[in-house]
Amino acid sequence: MPEQTLAVLTLEGVRVTVPAGTTVLAALQNAGLSPLRRSLSGEARGALCGMGSCSECRAVVDSQTVRTCLTPVRDGQNVRRLMEVNRES
Amino acid sequence: MNPEWDAIVVGAGPAGLMAALTAAQGGLRVLLLDAQPTPGGQIWRGAAAGQRGAAGDLLRDVASHPGITVLSGAEVVAAEAGKSHILTVTSSAGLTHIHAARVILATGATERFLPFDGWTLPGVVGAGGLQAMSKGGLDVRGKRVVVAGSGPLLLAVAAGLRQKGARVLAVAEQAGLPGVAAFGVAAARLPGKATEALELAAGLRGVPYWADCAVVRASGQDQLQSVTLRRGRREVTLACDYLAVGFGLMPETRVAALLGCSLDAQGAVEVNVWQATSVSGIYAAGEVCGIGGVDGALLEGFVAGCAASGQIERLRDAPRRAEIQRQFQSVLERSFALRPDRLPTPSPATIVCRCEDVRHGQLQGFTNWTAAKLQTRCGMGACQGRVCGPTTETLYGWRFTGVRAPLAPLPLSQLLAQPTVLGPP
């Protein structure tokens, strides 16, 4: 087995260790954090396209709203979901 | 220093990688842009440079060629054709202007999504989407997955997920068996495809393949719990963790549209035998010119790279190979043509625009995209109509006219800062 590098990040205040080279989306999903966000009318939502088109997987990583499927995990990242039912910037 | 690149290649999937390498072999200084964190595109996502096979070889050759600069995590947000073409690109380095004499578009394809009750539940994902997520690190071991929709991608997705430890309960295809069989026969005639098909079949042994099958609804409370399919007159409900659903692929033509390239009746970028578009100095290759798979994409990337760098002598064999690919592509289109009576039917309460939560019932009365958008905010959310635009074309017969800059969401800090210019080294 090749040695695997790891990244330590904080998901909703909880520290998790995940393999480097994976996405923030995968980290959220594997941690069982569902829904990923609430829609305008309060619906539960999760990732849809997995490739940066739909923006359903957006979350706040280090105080920036990003598409988590396009965001590689990095050591020290702080990730928060968009669970408020209103328009985010 | 001349800030102009000889060529920009947009998209680092098979077509873009091959185009970049070929153009660089012809002596051009090439900038290869891609939105994903690493090159490879969707089909070769996660492949490593130097690994065994075509993907590893091409990724290694591109990475080691001194004439190619690779910029990953970079998305084109604006584009202007001219004597020198100008692309505006967002990346972690901020907003950048890039000038180039030639542009090769290899932007690939996205999945077509069609709405049905429950499709917004977490757990309902794109077919290619779930494959991408799994390659990105999502653990699917032991997960119950139903794969549904249309096209040969469903089979590849099902086999891939199974290999990663998922329990694929069924593959539900809207096309009829005669179409699927015709596709299989045509594919088997192509060099290399027969082995590929056999491997795929082995990977899917024991998985039910249901042709003529429609998705009716997904059910669950805040999370997918089951999916209901219609086979003939009978409805079947399967409890599952994921419904991976996609109704074929659509050429990703947004950058091409901003540059003014003509599209054909199928919505693909129109190209001539040299992969040149209607705009001088702009070429296109791969799925953006029509859905045809990886072999066609590699060939078109090669042709575009040769044409852009004037290596005409290397193109002797290309027309014959292109003809084989074109035949394959037309069988693919016919075999999996969408059949209205096998497509999901939204109810008035079904959400069509997921960003703004606009429902089918709110949209049915409109006659065109612009009117609907102004009245309902359909297509005005985070994705800017990338999902619902094509959906409304299928559902209502509108023409989606919502492609405009910026093509990707930009942080305010980038909008306010002065863009830098990225020239060749």
Largest interface: A-B, 39 and 43 residues
Coarse morphology of chain A = globular
Distance between the termini of chain A: 44 Å
CATH class of the largest domain in chain B: Alpha Beta
Subunit organisation of the chains = heterodimer
How many beta-strand runs of chain B?
20
What's the number of structural domains of chain A?
A: 1
Cα-atom Rg of chain A, whole angstroms? 13 Å
Number of strands of chain A: 7
With helices defined by DSSP (H or I, 4 residues minimum), what is the helix count of chain B? 13
**Anisotropy-based shape of chain B:** globular
Largest sheet of chain A, order of strands side by side? Answer: 2-1-7-5-6
Summed up, the domain count of chain B is 3
Task: Determine the structural class of chain B based on helices, strands and strand pairing.
Answer: alpha/beta
**What is the CATH architecture term of chain A?**
Roll
Word description of this protein:
The complex is a heterodimer of chains A (89) and B (425). By secondary structure, chain A is mainly beta. Chain A has a single domain, classed as Beta-grasp domain (Ubiquitin-like (UB roll), Roll). Helix content of chain A is 8%, strand content 30%. Chain A is built from one helix and seven strands. Chain A is globular and about 40 Å long. The relative contact order of chain A is 0.26. Chain B is of the alpha/beta class and 425 residues long. Helix content of chain B is 31%, strand content 23%. In chain B, the strands form five sheets. In chain B, strands 1, 2, 3, 4, 5, 6, 17 and 20 form an eight-stranded mixed β-sheet that branches. Chain B has a five-stranded parallel β-sheet with strand order 8-15-9-10-11, with helices on one face. Chain B has a three-stranded antiparallel β-sheet with strand order 12-13-14, with no helix packed on it. The interface between A and B is large, with 39 and 43 residues.
